[in-house]
Write a structure and sequence with these properties.
This protein is an alpha+beta fold. The chain has three helices and ten strands, in the order αβββββββββαβα. Strands 1, 2, 3, 4, 5, 6, 7, 8, 9 and 10 form a ten-stranded mixed sheet that branches. Strand 1 and strand 2 form a beta hairpin. The protein is globular. It starts with a helix and ends with a helix.
């Protein structure tokens, strides 16, 4: 191979390498997992390929539902996971400004209410929740685990320290999130049966503001 031919081939080969690198690093949307959050139940249902997988206790806003800036309310409707923050941080790690501080606190630490463990930053995909991302609406861990199951947040969806780590490890960026007003509970077949939850709860009237 002559030097002139070599000089022509090298830039082409490098171009292919860079093209492959950028293509392989492009984010892949998680189309397999969906999270359904019921304000009525204060539960998050994880659905994988259309099948319910796991139910978690959560807390939505104590100020109610809505998406107005400054309202501290939880938005309804269809959203997506825009960013995942907290890879490999230990459960209970305190985050400030979406950065780990190095402090780790235990569940129900007296007088403490920071964001802990993991952050799933949500982006609204509908006109009535379009402010969600700029309002910093997250699914995140809370040390106030004793208040899970009741509305207690300032707009975000709170989860237990370990539960949010588990959810974070199961879902990817771009995964769908649906916040509904109504219940996901299936009717009980017999008295005393434990409640079960269904992904069929998503209807327009249950997600609208």
């Amino acid at each position: 191979m002559t030097w002139s031919i070599f000089r022509k081939l090298v830039p082409a080969a490098l171009g292919l390498v860079f093209a492959f690198s950028f293509t392989s690093c492009a984010p892949i949307k998680d189309d397999h997992n969906k999270m359904i959050i019921s304000v009525s139940d204060q539960k998050l249902l994880l659905v994988h390929d259309g099948k319910p997988v796991k139910v978690y206790n959560v807390s939505t806003s104590k100020f109610g539902i809505g998406d107005q800036p400054g309202s501290n309310r939880t938005p309804l409707g269809h959203l997506q996971v825009a960013k995942k923050i907290g890879d490999n941080a230990p459960a209970g790690m305190v985050f400030k400004g979406r950065r780990p501080t190095g402090e780790i606190i235990q569940p129900n630490a007296p007088g403490r209410d920071p964001i802990v463990s993991r952050i799933l930053w949500l982006n609204g995909t509908e006109s009535h929740n379009r402010n969600a991302f700029n309002r910093y609406i997250y699914i995140h861990g809370t040390p106030e685990e004793s208040r899970l199951g009741t509305p207690a947040s300032y707009g975000c969806i709170r989860m237990g320290c370990n539960d949010v780590v588990d959810l974070y490890n199961r879902v990817g960026a771009g995964a769908d999130v649906v916040v509904i007003r109504g219940s996901m509970k299936k009717p009980r077949t017999e008295a005393g049966d434990a409640p079960t939850y269904t992904a069929n709860a998503i209807t327009p009237n249950r997600t609208s503001t």
